[in-house]
Amino acid sequence: MPGVAAAGLPVGSRLIAREPALHAIGVVPVLLWLALGAGATVSVPVTFQLLHPSNLYLVLGLAGTGIAVLAFVRGGCRLADDDLREARPASMAHVLRHGGHEVAFVTVWVAAAYLAWSLLSHTTGFDGSQLPVLGLAGVVVGALVGLVPGCAIQIVFTGLFLAGGMPLPTLVANMVSQDGDALLPLMALEHRAALLATVLTTIPALVVGSALFLLL
C-alpha cells in the first residue's frame, strides 16, 4: 500500500492495514477466543453463585475444550515457539493467533490432567483422603503432593481442609510446594528448568509447613 508507506506509518501499522482480521487470525483461533469469552461470561456469575450451573455451562466447556484440542492438533501438537518475531508482533491478529495456540496447549494439558485424576479416583477409589495428613508426616505428604502438576489434586486438598480432614500445616506445605498449571508448559519446553522450579518450591514448603506445625 504505497499511500500508507508514504504516510510514514510504522511497519506494524502498515501490516494491520493490509491484513483482513478473520483471515489473518484464522478460523480456529477465532472460535477459541469466542468460546473463552462465552465461557467466562457464564462462569463468573456461577462462581459467585449468582447463576446456577446448567446444561449451557457444560456445553460451553465441552465446546471450548474441543476447539482447543483442534487448535492444538492443527498447531502440530506443540507450544508455539517464542522467538524475537513472536516477542515483537506486527499486528493484533498476530497476537491473537499466537496467544490462541498457547491457550490451546495449556487447556489440552489441563484437561488431560483432570481426566487422568478422575480416571485414577474412579478406578482405584483413591481420592486423597487416604493420605496421612497429620503431624510432620502430613507436612511431608503435602509438600510431595505439590510436586504433581496441575491444580486438580490441590483442589481436593483444599476441600479436605475445609471439611476438617486436614490440619493447616499440611495445607500450607501443599500450597507453597504446588506449581499449578504453570508447570505444564514449562515441562514441555524446558525439562531441567521445570525440575529446578519444582525443587525450589518443595524445600521452602517443607520449612514453612514444619515451622507452622511446631508453632501450632
What does this structure look like?
By secondary structure, the protein is mainly α. The chain has two domains: 2-123, no CATH class; 135-215, no CATH class. Helices cover 74% and strands 0% of the residues. It contains twelve helices and no strands. Helix 4 (27-47) runs antiparallel to helix 5, helix 4 (27-47) packs across helix 7 and helix 11 (183-189) packs antiparallel against helix 12. It starts with a helix and ends with a helix.
Termini, distance in Å?
A: 71 Å
Average pLDDT rating: 75
Radius of gyration: 22 Å
- What is the H/E string? HHHHHHHHHHHH
Number of individual domains: 2
Parts with pLDDT < 50 across at least 5 consecutive residues: 1-20
Biggest sheet architecture: none
Keywords:
216 residues, disordered N terminus, mainly alpha, single chain, globular
Question: Which SSEs are present, and which pair or pack?
Answer:
Elements: H1 2-6, H2 11-18, H3 21-25, H4 27-47, H5 55-74, H6 84-87, H7 92-124, H8 135-145, H9 152-162, H10 168-177, H11 183-189, H12 191-215
Helix pairs in contact: 4-5, 4-7, 5-7, 8-10, 8-12, 9-10, 10-12, 11-12
Q: How would you concisely characterize the structure shown here?
A:
The chain is globular, with a radius of gyration of 22 Å.
